[in-house]
Amino acid sequence: MHPSSPRGRLRDALLRVGERGDVNEADLRAAVTTALRELASEALGERSRVDLVTVGAEDHPWGRSLGLRLADHDVELPHVLLHADGSPLPPQVQESCPTLRQEEWETVLLVSKLLLMALQSEPEPVRDGAAHPPQSAPRPPRSVSREQFCQALTAIPDRPDLHPDELTAQLRTALLNFASETPDNKEAAHRIAVLQVVTTCW
After folding, report:
1. What DSSP assignment string belongs to 90-108?
2. What digits encode the pLDDT tens for the residues 68-105?
3. What's residue 126's pLDDT?
4. Contact, 157 vs 1, CB < 8 A?
5. Alpha carbons 156 and 150: distance in angstroms, whole number
6. Residues whose CB falls within 8 Å of the CB of residue 175, separated by 6 or more in sequence, listed in order
7. Could you tell me if 35 and 9 are in contact, meaning their C-beta atoms sit under 8 angstroms apart?
8. How far lies 157's CA from each of 1, 3, 161, 195, in Å?
C-alpha cells in the first residue's frame, strides 16, 4: 500500500503510535486523525464517525500506553472490543453475509481487538512516583512478539512477491506468539487467511 494513498497514510500513522523512541503526542494525534478522516471519507462518505476516535494515553497498573481511544470517553478501542466478546451476530451483518456463523463473527471481534492492541505502544512505566512520565521520556520499544505481529501485518500490502499461503502462515504464527495460544486464539488464527481479492470499488 503506497503511503500516498489514504490507506497507506493511515497505516503509516498507526504504526508510529507504537514505534520505539520519543513521540510528540499532539503531532501523532493530528497525523492519525487526518489520515483516518481521509480514508473514512473515501470509503464511508457520510456514514463516517471517525471524529469520535482519537489518539491518547491510558494509565494501567503496570504503566502508560498510547493508542486509539473514543474521544468522549476514557476508554481504549481494544477495551471496548474486549467487552464485545461473545456478543451475538448483528442482524445487519447476517443480512449482508448470510453464511457467516456466530463463531466467525466472534473471530472478527477477537482479531480486530488484537490488531488494535498490537498497534498501540507498550505500557511505559511511571517514573519517580509521578502520575505521568515526562513527555520527553522515550517509550520502551515494542516487544519482539508485538513487533513481529506488526511486521506480519505490513507484509500483506508490502510483499506482493510472497504467496498468500506464506503470508497466512506468518500471520497466524505471529498472532499466536503475540496473543498466546489459548483455545480461542488458536481457533481465531485458524479461521483467518490472506487472500487475493479483486475489487473495483469500496
Report:
1. PHHHHHHSTT--HHHHHHH
2. 999 888 889 999 998 898 899 999 999 999 999 999 99
3. 58
4. yes
5. 10
6. 111, 114, 149, 152, 185, 188, 189, 192
7. yes
8. 5, 11, 10, 11
Contacts of 14 by beta carbon, 8 Å cutoff, 6+ apart: 32, 35, 68, 119
102-119 helix and 6-17 helix, angle to the nearest 10 degrees: 70
State pTM to two decimals: 0.81
Q: Is 69 helix (H, G, I), strand (E, B) or coil?
A: strand
Write out the three cell numbers for 42: 473515501
Report residue 148 as a C-alpha cell: 513481529
Query: Distances from the Cα of 133 to the Cαs of 16, 54, 55, 137, in angstroms?
Result: 19, 20, 17, 7
Extract the runs of DSSP E, i.e. beta strands, from the chain. 53-60, 63-70
At 93, give phi and psi (nearest 5°).
Answer: -70, -45
Q: Which residues, in sequence order, are bridge partners of residue 69?
A: 54, 76
